[in-house]
Amino acid sequence: LSLASEYGATASRSIEEMITSSNLDIVSIATPHDLHEKQAVFAIENGVDVFMDKPMALNLEGARNILRKASDNDRVLGVCHNLLFHPAVQE
User: pTM, whole model, 2 decimals?
Assistant: First the structure.
């Protein structure tokens, strides 16, 4: 929390707190993989667009759930697939 105040940011203890206590347009999810589906669905269901790191979820069913929620709630969903380990990038 002190780091946030040092840079004039607002700190939250959870994505739920962050989304319900502010007026966000979009959230970037770069948390441990097992949290991606839950956090993305929460954001989407609360009217926030999502940009997230891969993997979307731990399994295909979870990924489909996120896609379905985004479609049903007319939210934008972006998934980052960086090429960090691509040979050309490593070179």
Answer: 0.83
